[in-house]
């Protein structure tokens, strides 16, 4: 038996929450303090890469259309590329700051995939609303990691990036398959789940 899709959304929400808390912790204490323990340097990039790997089974098991399979496959690929680039930077194998552009590219591709794979309108059901909201949030806030490429020590940008990840986790935690959005649900969506 395959669990409801909201279970998968909640698992990835937990991953995004951890990513956001890692980034926020690093921003608060500073990079030099954060990296005093070598293993902490690899937390963020390893989790991003692991989330990309975890997206492959989602692509294979939770797809009900070709567009869903393509969207989940795109997420898996860009998360793995971003995680690998961040791991290379953390390890010192990559030195160019241009590798940090993997983060904004990942956010734009992920946002577009969220928008393209949701085939219903904003107010069809809560899951449709959240897919649209998450997609546009990712696309609009991709400017933050883009600016971090040029100003990597900016506390304001680091904190904003972390808070975007936490906000994404809250949005994903709010997802339910069939539930009302703002007290409204399309009659075609089916009975709401409580």
Tell me the layout of helices and strands:
Elements: H1 5-29, H2 31-34, H3 38-41, H4 43-61, H5 66-91, H6 102-117, H7 126-141, H8 143-150, H9 155-173
Structure write-up:
The chain has 194 residues and is an all-alpha fold. The protein has a single domain, classed as Alpha Horseshoe (Serine Threonine Protein Phosphatase 5, Tetratricopeptide repeat), CATH 1.25.40. The chain is built from 9 helices and no strands. The protein has helices at 5-29, 31-34, 38-41, 43-61, 66-91, 102-117, 126-141, 143-150, 155-173. Helix 4 packs antiparallel against helix 5. The chain is elongated. The two termini are 21 Å apart. 32% of the residues are buried.
